[in-house]
Amino acid sequence: MDKAILEAMVEAALAAGRRIAEIYAQDFSSAAKADGTPVTIADHEAEAIIEARLAPFGLPFLGEERVASGAIPELGDRFFCVDPLDGTKEFIKKNGEFTVNIGLVEKQRAVAGVILAPAREKIWGGAAGGAWMAEVHGIGAYERRSIAVQTSRSPKVVASRSHGHAALQSLMDAFGATENLSVGSALKFGLLAEGTAQLYPRLTPTAEWDTAAGQAILEAAGGAMLSIDGEPMRYGKRLESFINPMFVAASDLALARACAARMRALV
């Protein structure tokens, strides 16, 4: 992958994050999209910023808000997959648990990603060369440090703040997990990639733009992500309206496979 693309993804996320932070500090309203999920001016403006920043590369742009408006491009083998404000519910609650997600997909696989958490002033990135994270004070200058997953006999589980599932406790018991870190948005992938947690079973719906960036970062850090049937996650699923199957993200492939098998038995 061209290093220039990943750096442009980083700069696009930071630019979008600056605007999101400005709106977050103000009073703002929200509306409901056709599917009932909330949207704010921050979602729309951040996506426009990201799309403009990445336009020079001439790649198709699969953005959540563009898809919601019916503007679905022909994707081909290589495209950007973007959630300009992942965790809009958390943004509205003002609990800080929201992110900017920018992923790059090649031949249906997530190969590079950037996740920015504006309120937490953290950024994660990853591609074939490895994964990194950094503090971004004021969503500006930062110094990267390499990160890698950490395995554990008693894995810490991360789960959705707003989309829980009754089977989660059974999965925790099956793998000897004693701690459940509930957080919103793609922050869960960052926690896995940096070694803070080891297991993220997802039993409720997500879309491709929710996971592409996170999967790329996690795999660059040495982790793994599989669909519930134990297969690699695919992107560009137009016929499925870009909705993902249930999945598991984990600190290693063996744990991912074991958890996927357990999830199949539960559901």
In terms of topology, how is this protein built?
Elements (H helix, E strand, L loop, with lengths): L2 H22 L5 E3 L5 E3 H14 L6 E3 H5 L9 E9 L1 H6 L5 E8 L2 E9 L4 E6 L2 E6 L9 E3 L8 E5 L7 H7 L4 E5 L3 H7 L5 E4 L5 H13 L3 E4 L19 E4 L2 H14 L1
Parallel strand pairs: 3-4, 10-11
Antiparallel strand pairs: 1-2, 4-5, 5-6, 6-7, 7-8, 8-9, 12-14, 13-14
Tell me briefly what this model is.
By secondary structure, the protein is an alpha+beta fold. The chain contains eight helices and 14 strands.
Description:
By secondary structure, this protein is an alpha+beta fold. 33% of the residues lie in helices and 27% in strands. It contains eight helices and 14 strands. The protein has helices at 3-24, 41-54, 64-68, 88-93, 168-174, 187-193, 208-220, 253-266, and strands spanning 30-32, 38-40, 61-63, 78-86, 99-106, 109-117, 122-127, 130-135, 145-147, 156-160, 179-183, 199-202, 224-227, 247-250. The strands form four sheets. Strands 3-4-5-6-7-8-9 form a seven-stranded mixed β-sheet, sandwiched between helices. α1 (3-24) runs antiparallel to α2 and α6 (187-193) packs parallel to α7 (208-220). The longest helix has 22 residues, at 3-24. The chain is globular.
